[in-house]
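Your task
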Amino acid sequence: MLAALLAVLPVSGSGKALAETPAAIDQSTGRDALVAGLRGRILAAHSATLALEGWCAEHRMATDPHLVAERLPGPEKPLTAAQRTRLAIGPEEPVRYRRVRLVCGDHVMSEADNWYVPARLTPEMNATLDGTRTPFGRVVRPLAPVRRTVAVRAAGAESGPDDPLFEVDAVLSTGAGQPFCEVVETYLGTALPTPTR
């Protein structure tokens, strides 16, 4: 009887619901699998903001899964010559720099260095970036950005909740192919959902 019941369960309504439960809340899911899943989602996306919001919603990490960009203090980091080449700008082209922490509820998802060419954004976009906590990816969505990964780096051996998981360097271009932003993103252990006990 029990074997027959178990054989039927996966095709029943209850079995379907269990199959669709986010893997992150299953204790049998390992940390490495979660990190790989998050990394794969980021690398496949044209917007890290949308990818992270989808991740937060899927794993029920906050009541409101929309990200908030918290500005981090510190000196500006100048663009390298290689970065200016990737952005197709000369040495005198003005570039703005932001360092932010992207937060979903009480989860810090990532920290990012962001260099962008203000002349390639609208005045409204520049004003929003200067005066609000709206994530860059949401602000520039009307540009239909295309994201190209430049580099991916694995983190060290540390596995604490605040330790880095991996880093991604990427360039964003408009749908028409004009680059306007380069980011260096560090994804943190707090981006992983906490398994249920």
